[in-house]
Write a structure and sequence with these properties.
alpha+beta, four-stranded antiparallel sheet, 17% strand
């Protein structure tokens, strides 16, 4: 039962954390596009670089890269220019340990219906993954402690209920189903039979 409770709690926590990371990335997209669309339309790449530098300095974002409509990288921070950009995560799962703790996002940059380029950034999920692991360890620890305490309580209750059974007299033991008389009772019975047997006349 405790395992089921912990597993259900982790399932709900995983869903909430995944939804929170996606909501955070969707909240960042319009803010960055609004700040980048005007300088990108004017080909003011120095301003584009300054905007992404300032956006990444707040923390929580591993990289930000801006690509123009021709596919050329015009500004980047946190990702090498000579390496291909990561593919955007569509179905990211925090339970998949093969994935890096990062949510890769790609969004088009448009202005007045005109395509200007695309925005690429990676949202760091290391804090969320660390929190999930900590909560999992605490949940397992609490479940193990509850199991240990339950076992101790059951042992104490069983001892308290059966501590007077050994002091019961012989007839009481004989009345209990499946029980045998005490050894002292059997010894007294055999001694009485030994004294009575010589008085019985033997048949001739």
């Amino acid at each position: 039962m405790l395992v089921i409770v912990v597993a259900n709690s982790m399932r709900l926590l995983h869903g909430a954390m995944t939804e929170q990371s996606r909501w955070q990335s969707e909240e960042m997209i319009p803010v960055l596009i609004a700040a980048l669309s005007a300088p990108l339309a004017q080909r003011d790449y120095a301003t584009v670089q300054a905007v992404i530098n300032e956006s990444r300095s707040t923390g929580g974002v591993e990289y930000i890269t801006v690509v123009d409509r021709l596919g050329n990288r015009v500004a980047s921070n946190g990702w090498p220019m000579d390496q291909p950009l990561p593919v955007a995560n569509k179905n990211y799962s925090l339970l998949d340990i093969s994935n890096s703790p990062r949510l890769d996002v790609a969004a088009p940059i448009t202005q007045m219906g005109q395509h200007l380029g695309s925005l690429h950034f990676g949202l760091s999920l290391s804090r969320i993954v660390s929190a999930r692991r900590l909560l999992l360890a605490q949940g397992i620890g609490i479940a193990g402690l509850e199991l240990l305490l339950s076992s101790i309580i059951m042992i104490v209750i069983g001892y308290w209920l059966t501590r007077h059974l050994t002091s019961l007299p012989g007839p009481v033991w004989m009345s209990l189903p499946g029980s045998w008389p005490p050894r002292r009772f059997m010894k007294e019975k055999m001694t009485s039979a030994a004294w009575v047997s010589p008085l019985i006349p033997c048949p001739r």
